[in-house]
Amino acid sequence: MSNHTVTVSNGTKVPRVAYGTGTAWFKSNANELDQKLINSVKDAIKAGFVHIDTAEMYNTEREVGEAIKQSGIKRDELFLTTKIYKSLQTLEDRFDEQLKDLQVDFVDLYLIHSPYVNSKKYHGPGGDIKEYWKRMEKLVSSGKTKSIGVSNFQIEHLKEILSIATIKPVVNQIEYHPYLLQEDLIKFCNDNDIKIEAYSPLTPLTDKKGGKVEAVVNELGEKYSKSPLQILLKWSTQKGAVAVTTSSKTDRLKESVNIADFELTNEELEKISDAGRGTTIRKYWADDISN
Ligand SMILES: NC(=O)c1ccc[n+]([C@@H]2O[C@H](COP(=O)([O-])OP(=O)(O)OC[C@H]3O[C@@H](n4cnc5c(N)ncnc54)[C@H](OP(=O)(O)O)[C@@H]3O)[C@@H](O)[C@H]2O)c1
After folding, report:
1. Is the C or the N end of the chain the one with fewer CB within 10 Å?
2. Local confidence pLDDT in tens for the 291 residues of the chain
3. Is the CB of 172 inside a 6 Å radius of any atom of ligand 1?
């Protein structure tokens, strides 16, 4: 089941595998409801996902809200994450609209989607991330979010936030897979008790098919009678991360939440990392990070 958890710095338990509604589900038209996504979120909940990840940027919050309502899952059984970026200037008002779209009174986790507030490509809001963080902290006292965190932050951005924070970010949601090991950033987060949420964990199957990692993952899949997808999600979670994945296919959703009944050895975890070392794939925010 997906509801094995990681405990973050404020004591909250975050389910280890999340169903993401960005990437393949991203919508440029906010007005049309995507019925396929509503069905898929319901499917994911039925398969055992108890953690759903969305964002202002994805335009999928209304679908998530509808699916949660239709699924009948109790609010206290679900861990709900959303994010903000382009509307950071009007954070408090936008957050209320997001809650309305999600049809909930609170979210479990609210993230600043990116530190690149001046990104042209992503229509950044401008401004100062330290000030935005102070405003995020106030949302916790309002009770409208239980925890706050960040996404796509590098060490220098985390240092800025930590220099003024009274509430530390509980997570940093980053692109993390064997082809993007980011060992310095991971160490910095570990040292500061900031948990990693790993998005795009299946990159060795989606963007680097036939690569060195896939060969190792296939071999381990045979050993444990698990699919390559399950081995990669297990790698992420045993490295300490919450894995944020997605699929439109019921079988893959069921596989994704069925990873609690086996353990990779430390040598096997290292073998997967070693196979990815030396090749770098970064799919998101790459233009901003290299600037
Ligand atoms: N914070 C950020 O900036 C940020 C950025 C990117 C993503 N995210 C979050 O992370 C979530 C997941 O990101 P992701 O989609 O990149 O994650 P992923 O888990 O690496 O990839 C999911 C995709 O892999 C495909 N897939 C699964 N098994 C496969 C296989 N064996 N062979 C080939 N393809 C396979 C799925 O397609 P099928 O539908 O065919 O199964 C699905 O489209 C997003 O939805 C979003 O919530 C956050």
Report:
1. C
2. 345 999 999 999 999 999 999 999 999 888 889 999 999 999 999 999 999 999 999 999 999 999 999 999 999 999 999 999 999 999 999 999 999 999 999 999 999 999 999 998 888 999 999 999 999 999 999 999 999 999 999 999 999 999 999 999 999 999 999 999 999 999 999 999 999 999 999 999 999 888 999 999 999 999 999 999 999 999 999 999 999 999 999 999 999 999 999 999 999 999 999 999 999 999 999 888 764
3. no
User: Annotated binding residue at 113?
Assistant: yes
**Nearest residue CA, atom 11 of ligand 1?**
20
Tell me, using a 6 A CB cutoff, whether residue 206 lines ligand 1: yes
In angstroms, the Cα distances linking 172 to 90, 149, 179, 197, 284 are 22, 6, 18, 6, 15
Beta bridge partners of 79: 51
| Domain locations in the chain as residue ranges | 5-201+240-253
Residue written as token pair 């770098």: 280
d(CA 130, CA 163): 9
Q: Which CATH class is domain 5-201+240-253?
A: alpha beta
- The token duo for 282 is 């970064």
- 20 CA to centre of own chain: 7
Q: Would you name the residues annotated as active-site residues? A: 58
The first and second tokens of residue 60, run together, are 């999928």
Calculate how far, in angstroms, residue 184's C-alpha sits from the geometric centre of ligand 1. 24
Looking at the chain, which runs of residues are DSSP E strands?
A: 5-7, 13-15, 17-20, 51-53, 79-84, 107-112, 145-151, 171-175, 195-199, 242-245
